[in-house]
Amino acid sequence: RADQAGLASISNQMKDLAARAKSGKLKPEEVQGGGFSISNMGMFGVRDFAAIINPPQAGILAVSAGEPRPVVKDGALAIATVMTCTLSVDHRVVDGALAAEWIAAFKRIVEEPLGLML
Hints:
Elements: H1 7-22, E1 36-40, E2 59-73, E3 76-89, H2 96-111
Parallel strand pairs: 1-2
Antiparallel strand pairs: 2-3
């Protein structure tokens, strides 16, 4: 369980799972019963997409490619790397307002990762 493991332990478990997935050695029970998924199509240059929830999971985050786009920063036009992330949740399990709060917090963290250090 991720809430009971340290970052190094989670990293090691993920590397092990990825290696066994690539070699076709994962057991069925190791890919079932999750509560949340992340789908990344950014590596293929996909600008945005909506991912479909994998039952019985409560949600899925669709992560798209980061690309340079014009933005207004401090009242001036600038170029910034912009990435679209779309959150889909099962509203029978997760209240939409709570999901909106979560994606807003995620946005703040992605935009200002050093804030995690404070």
